[in-house]
């Protein structure tokens, strides 16, 4: 069970209007100016926007894979260790993070992953 960074980047390409911004030690991802994710190559981790209840559930269920990153604006961000998650689960979490930031008309154009 593990997701390669290339596979994570392919997941992002299935979503509409994703904007990438590179910093020295991480990449960030936004949709129409609203941030929904981060990627840290050095640690092979991803930070994703989630609801507060989903953040709490993920961390409680599998603290070896998920950890609290921070909370802001009524959302809970989680750090995901790519070596501990399967692609299907990460695909759903990436979509949910994107959906929480995307405008409604854009979400209507991109169906959730099967």
UniProtKB/TrEMBL annotation:
Superkingdom in the source lineage: Bacteria
Annotated Gene3D superfamilies: 3.90.1150.30
InterPro entries from the UniProt entry: YjbR-like_sf (IPR038056), YjbR/MT2646/Rv2570-like (IPR058532)
Pfam family, one: YjbR
Name this polypeptide is given: YjbR protein
């Amino acid at each position: 069970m593990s997701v390669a960074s290339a596979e994570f980047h392919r997941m992002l390409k299935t979503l509409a209007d994703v904007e990438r911004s590179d910093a020295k030690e991480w990449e960030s991802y936004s949709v129409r100016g609203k941030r929904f994710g981060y990627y840290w190559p050095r640690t092979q981790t991803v930070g994703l926007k989630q609801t507060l209840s989903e953040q709490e559930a993920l961390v409680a269920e599998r603290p070896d894979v998920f950890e609290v990153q921070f909370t802001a604006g009524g959302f809970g961000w989680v750090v995901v260790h790519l070596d501990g998650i399967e692609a299907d689960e990460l695909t759903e979490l990436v979509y949910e993070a994107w959906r929480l930031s995307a405008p409604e008309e854009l979400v209507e154009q991109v169906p959730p992953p099967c």
